[in-house]
Amino acid sequence: MARITENTKNEVREIVYSFFAEECEVDRSQINDNTNIIKDLDGDSLMFLELIEIFKKKYTLDIELKVIGKYAVKNPVATIGELIDMQLLIIEHEKRLLELEK
Length: 102
What we know:
The chain has helices at 6-23, 45-58, 65-74, 80-93. By secondary structure, it is mostly helical. Helix 1 crosses helix 4. It is globular.
């Protein structure tokens, strides 16, 4: 379990923005927290999985994809900001992510 700092928040935001700019071939300046991943960027769920793997490696996370999947089904994300918030929860809570629902 990691402690989320302003630096962590900024780092996650930078990685997410850069990832979607590159993957969706859009200028990074066109992406903000309100950008809809599917409607505005033509993104998909495989991109979310790629990002999870990037963050799992970067932060040495101990969490299974099925745990993230269960959480995501009950807490779907549509925007870049929502995705960043979810990623921060994953980094902070790892295996205990599903306990947040209680």
